[in-house]
Amino acid sequence: MLYFAQTDFLLLLLLIPFFFVAYALVRRARRKRVEKLGDPALVSALMPSASAAKGWVRLSLFSVAFFFFVLGLARPQIGAKLKEHKIKGAEIMICLDVSNSMLAEDYSPNRLERAKLAISRLVDKLSGDRIGLIVFAGEPFVQLPITTDYISAKMFMNTVSTESVPVQGTAVGEAINVAIRSFSAQSEKSRAIIVITDGENHEDDPVTAARQAAELGIRVFTIGVGSPEGKPIPVNGELLKDKEGNIVVTRLDESVLREIAEAGSGAYVRAGNSEFGLQPIVDSIKKMDEEEFSSMVFEEFDEQYMYFFAIALVFLVLEILIGERRYGRSIFK
């Protein structure tokens, strides 16, 4: 099936009828000028080599050439057949904390934006691995199902904010449980969960969830974002306060994150400003047994514009070779 990559150029085809209208008007104006010189039949006899039909033939050939030229500009393509594509790699589910505490500014510009930047840079380095994204606060949501579409992964990452989850809190355990259920059916060995949070869990038991993941062969890694001394939380231009009017200070809870990583047979890394910690974890994941994944993808389109340009050139050459005058007896007489 033929597709056009740049369909806007096809609008130029609307010019073809105007070619004939314009040429008819030009011939009419020319005929009126001839009539002013004298008897049209006498003037025609004085110009025996002039051919009225050749003009229309040349215009028709030029129009056909223009038609194929425009089709070439629109980049006709064929292909787009479904094909099974097999790749080797790991499946990685990233659980990103989007609670208000991630707005603390002990990283530049804040914890959440620094984490998003690190994930985006990591995606740029992936090849063959499948990645998914879960955002969580008081409850988790699958922001991006497991995929190899890295462009979409970065697009979804840009939309993440503290408003991505309506319920505030930090349900790390439930986020891990959702991640466990989000892996593809093809994956059995090389599966890993990376939890990025400040560790202030207020909702559930993440250690038990990590242990259950490890029993299923899924390794759980944690990245601690924040500082032990803590930072206030800016919300809507003001610092967040509790019910008593005291400024809320969010601190990194490394002990919980270490317990989660240990229970999940993974490792804990404290995020830094220069090295966030994702790359060392992914390098460790890549040492796991790679699995072969298959998916149905569209084959790349084959460009066909050059053939249309060639046809246009042939008709344009014919238009030039015909000329404007007739020679002896001609089919254009």
Strand % is 15-25%
Task: Compute the number of helices.
Answer: 10
SSE series: EHHHEEEHEEHHEHEEEEEHEHEEH
Shape descriptor: elongated
Query: How would a textbook summarize the main sheet?
Result: 6 strands, mixed
Helicity level: 25-40%
- Structural class label: alpha/beta
Describe the structure in your own words:
With 333 residues, this protein is an alpha/beta fold. The protein is 40% helix and 21% strand. It has 10 helices and 15 strands. It has helices at 16-37, 40-46, 52-73, 111-125, 150-158, 172-181, 206-215, 254-263, 278-286, 305-322; strands at residues 2-4, 76-78, 82-89, 91-97, 130-136, 140-147, 191-197, 218-224, 231-232, 234-235, 238-239, 249-250, 268-270, 291-298, 302-303. The strands form 5 sheets. Strands 6-5-4-7-8-13 form a 6-stranded mixed sheet, sandwiched between helices. Helix 3 runs antiparallel to helix 10 and helix 6 packs parallel to helix 7. The two termini are 42 Å apart. 32% of the residues are buried. The model is unreliable at 329-333 (pLDDT under 50).
What does the secondary structure layout of this molecule look like, with pairings?
Layout (H helix, E strand, L loop, with lengths): L1 E3 L11 H22 L2 H7 L5 H22 L2 E3 L3 E8 L1 E7 L13 H15 L4 E7 L3 E8 L2 H9 L13 H10 L9 E7 L8 H10 L2 E7 L6 E2 L1 E2 L2 E2 L9 E2 L3 H10 L4 E3 L7 H9 L4 E8 L3 E2 L1 H18 L11
Parallel strand pairs: 4-5, 4-7, 7-8, 8-13
Antiparallel strand pairs: 1-2, 2-15, 3-14, 5-6, 9-12, 10-11
Helix pairs in contact: 1-3, 3-10, 4-5, 6-7, 7-8
